[in-house]
Design goal:
mainly alpha; 3-stranded mixed β-sheet; 16 helices; 3 strands; SEC-C metal-binding domain-containing protein
C-alpha cells in the first residue's frame, strides 16, 4: 500500500498534495488516501509533515477503519527522525492492543528490526503469530509477512527452527530457501572475489525480487458489493428500478455470502467485500455520466471501491466480526453454516 518509487521518477510532494486534494473530494476514502500521501512525504524525507498527516487521521472525529495501522506507521516514521522514545511508546501500545490485522504487527516489528532491536522484533513477530494464527488451519496470505519476518529475525539471532519457522518454510514459494535468503552471512558474499559466490548471491537476489513482484502483482480482490440496511433503503427509495436487484435486505446478504462461497469453491483467490453508500454511489454515477438507477453500474462501482483500497477480505479472520455489520462474530453469523 505504500509507494516505493524513487524520487528520481516521482515528485512525491506533488503526489502527496494531489492525494490530499482527492481526500477532500472523497471523505469516505480519506483514511486510505492520506496514508498514501503520508508515505509519499516520507519518501520525500519530509517526515514531520508525514507525522502531521498521521496525527490528522488519529484526531479525526470520523472513526478510523484501522487506527492501529495508522499508529504503527506513525511510530515507524517518528523513529526515523529521532523521536525514539515516542515511537517505542506507540509500538508498545500497538502490541498491547493485539490488533487482528497483521499489517500493524509487521510494521512495528520491522521498525524494531531496522533499529537493531532484534530481540524485541522477534518477540513482536512471535506475539503476532500466536495471536493471529493459533488454531488456524491455513494462514491467510496477509499473515505471511509475519511468519517470514519472524524467520528472518530469528535467523539473525541464531535461534533454532521451531514450528512457526517450519510453517514459514512451507509457505515460501521461491526456489531459494528462507534459510539462504535470511542468512546473516549473505552480505559478506557481496564483497567476495569468488565468481561462484557472487553468482549464487545474484540468484538469491533474483528470487527475492520475484517474490516481491508476485506480492505487488496480486490483483484487487474480486469484490462483492454490500449495502447496509439503511443505505439499501435509501438507495431503493431514490432509485426504485434497482428493486429487481435487491428484493430484500435479508436476501441481499444471503446472496453475498452465497456468491462468495461459490467463488471460493471454484478456486477464485483474493475475495473481498466492499460496502457502498448512496452519496458515494451517486458521485460515481455522475463521474461515469450515467444514472444511478442503471443496474449495470453496480459491479463497476464495486470494482472502483476495491481499487481505492476499500475491500475487506472474505472470509473474515477467526474471531472477527461478521462482514454484515450485525455485531456478532462471523462464525456465529453468516459463517455458521461453514
Amino acid at each position: 500500500m505504500r509507494p516505493d518509487t524513487s524520487a528520481e521518477y516521482v515528485d512525491h510532494n506533488a503526489e502527496a498534495a494531489r492525494l490530499e486534494r482527492t481526500a477532500g473530494l472523497y471523505p469516505e476514502d480519506a483514511e486510505h488516501l492520506l496514508l498514501q500521501a503520508a508515505a509519499h512525504l516520507e519518501l520525500a524525507e519530509d517526515r514531520p509533515r508525514a507525522t502531521a498527516f498521521y496525527d490528522r487521521l488519529l484526531s479525526s472525529e470520523t472513526p478510523l477503519e484501522n487506527p492501529f495501522l495508522v499508529r504503527a506507521l506513525k511510530a515507524a516514521n517518528l523513529w526515523e527522525y529521532g523521536h525514539e522514545a515516542e515511537a517505542k511508546a506507540i509500538i508498545e501500545g500497538v502490541r498491547g492492543a493485539s490488533p487482528r490485522d497483521p499489517a500493524p504487527w509487521v510494521i512495528v516489528a520491522e521498525s524494531l528490526e531496522s533499529h537493531d532491536e532484534l530481540e524485541a522484533a522477534q518477540q513482536t513477530f512471535t506475539e503476532a503469530a500466536t495471536h493471529l494464527l493459533t488454531d488456524v488451519p491455513e494462514p491467510p496470505y496477509a499473515t505471511h509477512p509475519v511468519l517470514f519476518g519472524r524467520h528472518r529475525v530469528r535467523r539473525m539471532l541464531g535461534l533454532p527452527h521451531d514450528n512457526w519457522d517450519a510453517l514459514a518454510d512451507t509457505l515460501h514459494s521461491s526456489p531459494v530457501s528462507l534459510d539462504e535468503l535470511h542468512d546473516p552471512k549473505r552480505v559478506w558474499s557481496l564483497g567476495s572475489d569468488n565468481p561462484a559466490e557472487l553468482e549464487a548471491e545474484i540468484s538469491r537476489l533474483r528470487a527475492e525480487l520475484g517474490t516481491y513482484r508476485e506480492a505487488l502483482s496480486r490483483p484487487f480482490p474480486v469484490a462483492v458489493l454490500h449495502w447496509p440496511a439503511a443505505e439499501l433503503t435509501e438507495l431503493l427509495t431514490a432509485y426504485p428500478t434497482l428493486a429487481e436487484e435487491y428484493p430484500s435486505h435479508e436476501e441481499h446478504l444471503a446472496t453475498i455470502e452465497g456468491s462468495l462461497r461459490e467463488l471460493a469453491a471454484s478456486g477464485t483467490p483474493n475475495l473481498g467485500i466492499v460496502t457502498g453508500t448512496v452519496p458515494s454511489y451517486e458521485a460515481f454515477a455522475a463521474s461515469e455520466g450515467a444514472s444511478p438507477g442503471d443496474a449495470s453500474l453496480l459491479p463497476q462501482y464495486a470494482t472502483t471501491l476495491a481499487a481505492r483500497g476499500r475491500a475487506e477480505a472474505w472470509p473474515p479472520e477467526r474471531g472477527a466480526a461478521c462482514w454484515c455489520g450485525s455485531g456478532s462474530t462471523y462464525a456465529q453469523c453468516h459463517g455458521s453454516n461453514e
